Amino acid sequence: MLPVPDTARPTQVPLAVDLDGTLIKTDLLWESLAALLRRNPVALLQVPFWWARGRAYLKQQLAARVQLHPATLPYHEEFLTWLKAQKATGRKLILATASDLEMAKPVAAHLGLFDEVMASDGKTNLRADAKRAALTKKFGARGFDYAGNSTVDLAVWPGAREAVVVNAGARLAAQAAARTKVGRTFLSPASPRNAFWRCLRPHQWIKNLIIFVPVLTAHQLGDRAVLTTAALAFVAFCLCASSVYTLNDLVDLDADRHHATKRQRPFAAGELPLSVGFIAVPVLLAASLGLALSLSAAFAAVLAGYFFAALGYSLRLKQVAILDVFVLAGLYTLRLVAGHVATGIAWSAWLLMFSMFIFLSLALMKRFQELHSLRQQNQHAAKGRGYTAQDLELVTTLGLVSGFLAVLVLALYVNSEQVVKLYAHPTRLLLVCPLMLYWVSRVWFLAHRGQMHDDPTAFAFKDGVSYVIAGLTLAAMWLATGI
């Protein structure tokens, strides 16, 4: 009589699984650098010295200083589901990664799938040939299958019985097939180019149109030289803003992954390598400053001030209640200042005061939307912010008052000496006041109803009613000129 087979006994060879880029759609080394940037930016100055002692030592030092949250990492869900099925058959799974052991163990513990963790230890960087040697020593030549995602894994696959290609293209699968048999493949359909474009947030560039406001209010739209200068300043600010947005996404990784919609951002979702962000930030900033210097040193100084103010906001100031909205309003007003400096148009104190109040109102509206959503979800505090749900009413009051003060500044401007130089019939400008009162009241009304799903400034550029009000405002200005 033949013996009954033991179905609980594993009959498959062990499966070694890479972590970075395979099990997760990111890299723990770059995740650690982003976490260190968020926690202690000055400590990044030590990174080159750690790196000089080897990648394994660098990873060990980072692991000793930052702690990542495995539950929020972007996992490759389809591959993870397949791993769970493999585990259910009794197959032995090994997490074999070049990340530091202290970084890898929490991930393994969180998933509860792996029988063993093999990782870098501060001396040996377990990647490429070193990983193949370690796996071969433990399981023998062709005694294991290996799941990887990059060209670095091409050094491991010759020692494996079978390759599992994850989160990669057909080209890598073909290269793996030249070295060993290829089993399952989980190819990536994502487009890094599209993800990078989204990372730049081009839809936010419309905010930089504020640079053209001095040209409009000074009646210089017919001056081609002034318009060309303003357009170059606009491009410089767009590049600088994108560098700030990219840096902000790197700093806000953890908070974004806890957010209902921001978790879909390219870095948070693992659609774009974090290394791209660390490279893009200085490149975009350098291009921006180069273009700014071609206009004037004064404009470059304003742009640099904008960048450092935005950097301070991203790293710390956005966590300080009330101060954060003043900084946001200041960043908008700096765009207005940049328009004056770049074009050489005389300053308007009235315009600057109006800008500060109206953008303070919009910044408070942005916080109102976050707190309104927080209260609907029965949560108390916003992660990464200095507000709690009980601040909702106060933020609403401050926002409405700021918006109405902006209209008051506009009304007082009509009686100023400056307006007589530009308008033959200044009192006709008072027609703009009820238009602005209606617009401010309406956008706050929509925000209160939960019907504004975008950034308030971006909403204005998409809202048909806002365009009608803008058209009527321009018509009132034209009537005031007496032309």
Strand content: 5-15%
Query: Biggest sheet: strands side by side, in what order?
Result: 3-2-1-4-5-6
Count the domains: 3
Strands, count: 6
Architecture per CATH nomenclature, i.e. the level-2 architecture of the largest domain: 3-Layer(aba) Sandwich
Computed CA radius of gyration, to the nearest angstrom: 28 Å
Describe this structure in a few short sentences.
The chain is of the alpha/beta class and 483 residues long.
Structural descriptors:
483 residues, alpha/beta, Rossmann fold, Tetracycline Repressor, domain 2, 3 domains, 6-stranded parallel sheet, 7% strand, elongated, disordered N terminus
Q: Any overview of this molecule?
A:
The protein has 483 residues and is of the alpha/beta class. The protein has three domains: 15-189, Rossmann fold (3-Layer(aba) Sandwich), CATH 3.40.50.1000; 192-318 and 326-339, UbiA prenyltransferase (Tetracycline Repressor, domain 2); 348-483. 58% of the residues lie in helices and 7% in strands. It is built from 21 helices and six strands. It has helices spanning 28-39, 47-52, 55-65, 77-88, 101-111, 128-139, 170-177, 192-200, 213-217, 224-251, 253-257, 266-269, 274-295, 297-315, 323-343, 349-376, 392-414, 417-422, 432-448, 456-460, 464-481, and strands at 15-17, 93-100, 116-120, 145-148, 162-168, 181-187. It has a six-stranded parallel sheet with strand order 3-2-1-4-5-6, with helices on both faces. Helix 5 (101-111) links the parallel strand 2 and strand 3 (116-120). The longest helix has 28 residues, at 224-251. It is elongated, with a radius of gyration of 28 Å. The relative contact order is 0.07. Residues 1-10 have low confidence and may be disordered.
